[in-house]
Design a protein that fits this description.
Chain lengths: 114, 117
């Protein structure tokens, strides 16, 4: 399967703690993206990191990319109850038509306990 | 000022029926997508259109037929609905530029929850 795999599948932490989620993928990538999905909602893009980048920050989010290990991590610092959601990584793969498509991982369900 | 909108939000129907889901984006994007998310939250692409041209068709049954009347709209028609079609269907769009690449941020609609009884 080409899909990425997030680890852990589920994570519960206390509000204020940091949350770390990992994503592994199988093929070479141009970029890797992280998305958040709140319950009953569509996905929201969080951050995109290109293959020539190793780390990227956006507010309380920190993403790292290790292309040699084909893995990425998403760190959310000082977590808040509103961060409770599912988090997905996505990478680009070739479709059946020979065009490129985003392939999403299996997701990490993050629960922040107030 | 919704960026990507879908209708209906919920759809409950009987097996064998034909139904349509509509999607519109007001972002001026060239590319639109349909995804299916199953009960395990696994999200899989079904179709993609770039400027009204089909560019991705991911081994989806012929009962599913996308239609893009213009680059701001991508509708999904499903014939002879089956129990296994029950899922959440998401529309998305992105601006890939003149030379299409699936490398840019995608903007998702709120989803259509389809339940086939």
């Amino acid at each position: 399967s080409q899909q990425g795999e997030e680890d852990p599948q589920a994570l519960s932490i206390q509000e204020g703690e940091n949350a770390t989620m990992n994503c592994s993928y199988k093929t070479s990538i141009n970029n890797l993206q992280w998305y958040r999905q709140n319950s009953g909602r569509g996905l929201v893009h969080l951050i995109l990191i290109r293959s020539n980048e190793r780390e990227k920050h956006s507010g309380r989010l920190r993403v790292t990319l290790d292309t040699s290990k084909k893995s990425s991590s998403l760190l959310i610092t000082a977590s808040r109850a509103a961060d409770t959601a599912s988090y997905f990584c996505a990478t680009v793969h070739l479709s059946n038509f020979g065009n490129e498509k985003l392939t999403f991982g299996t997701g990490t369900r993050l629960t922040i306990i107030p | 000022d919704t960026a990507v909108s879908q209708t209906p939000k919920y759809l409950v129907t009987q097996m064998g029926n034909d139904k349509s889901i509509k999607c519109e984006q007001n972002l001026g994007h060239d590319t639109m997508y349909w995804y299916k998310q199953d009960s395990k939250k696994f999200l899989k692409i079904m179709f993609s259109y770039n400027n009204k041209e089909l560019i991705i068709n991911e081994t989806v049954p012929n009962r599913f037929s996308p239609k893009s009347p213009d680059k701001a709209h991508l509708n999904l028609h499903i014939n002879s609905l089956e129990l296994g079609d029950s899922a959440v269907y998401f529309c998305a769009s992105s601006q890939e530029g003149a030379k299409w690449r699936a490398k840019e941020t995608q903007y998702f609609g709120p989803g259509t929850r389809l339940l086939v009884l």
